[in-house]
Amino acid sequence: MVKNIVVAIDGYSSCGKSTLAKALAKKLHFIYVDSGAMYRAVTLYFLRNNTDLSNHDLIIDALEHIDLNFHSRDYQSHILLNGEEVSEEIRQMPVSENVSRIAAIKEVRKAMVRKQQKMGKSKNMVMDGRDIGTTVFPDAQVKLFMTADPKIRAERRYNELIAKGENVSLEEIFDNLAHRDFLDTTREESPLVRAEDAIILDNTDLTETEQLDFAIEKIRPFIV
Ligand code: CDP
Ligand code: CDP
Q: Residue of the nearest CA to atom 10 in ligand 1?
């Protein structure tokens, strides 16, 4: 098998990127990296420290105190913030409500992209996010751009959070997804945009198995 294949999955919030990325990693025995978890963990750090999020100088200076690491278990992506596993906490609403403004800061993005590119060296990997096919790995062999009906996306995320016992409303989730998509697509620094050579995958009416089959067909030429 050819080594160092990168599958880049980008798209809007909650449209199934990480579900597909994990399933692909498991099936193909690739490493899975959730780049969104990195922006979320950085945001959590600032929230825990009560940092003034409008003070970009403070945020940029503090970046050197943030150490992020992944450890892979069962093709899940577990993230460590300064040695502490925070995979669950970064999914909660306070982080979701603030992450896109932190992710829009140029210096934050530079630091994350550097780290992501290092992780992709000499490994077969699936990475999902917003700028993977455009900025992080513009030469990725396979690029997928995922989308789905906004209402369906909100319902899926709502069901997921309710099952975890979070106290949220469907309206709150819908608004958060719409707000993040707005910030992510309109920011100056590597906004969410489909790479010209990315294949669109709209999974509004697809099951998780169907979207996996679709992606495998696109990757197959590179792995045989
Ligand atoms: O899973 P969900 O769609 O809720 O989002 P995520 O992938 O965890 O990403 C959270 C936020 O991080 C996004 O809304 C973006 O603001 C930011 N992000 C980014 O800017 N670039 C990436 N490569 C990944 C995430
Ligand atoms: O990573 P991203 O934020 O794009 O989305 P996700 O966390 O992979 O998916 C959000 C929710 O949609 C999860 O609960 C998935 O199980 C669900 N999903 C689904 O119901 N059908 C699909 N075809 C894809 C995802």
A: 36
Please state the domain extents for the chain: 6-223
Residues 6+ apart with CB under 8 A from 74: 26
Q: Edge-to-edge, what's the strand order for the sheet holding 142-147? A: 31-34, 125-129, 6-11, 142-147, 199-202
What count of residues does the chain have? 224
ipTM of the complex: 0.97
If one counts every other C-beta atom within 10 angstroms of the C-beta of residue 26, the result is 15
Query: Does 17 carry a binding-site annotation?
Result: yes
Lookup: tokens for 109: 């993005």
Q: What are phi and psi of 167, to 5 degrees?
A: -95, 90
Q: What is the pLDDT of residues 149-174, one digit of tens each?
A: 999 999 999 999 999 999 999 999 99
In CATH, the number for domain 6-223 is 3.40.50.300
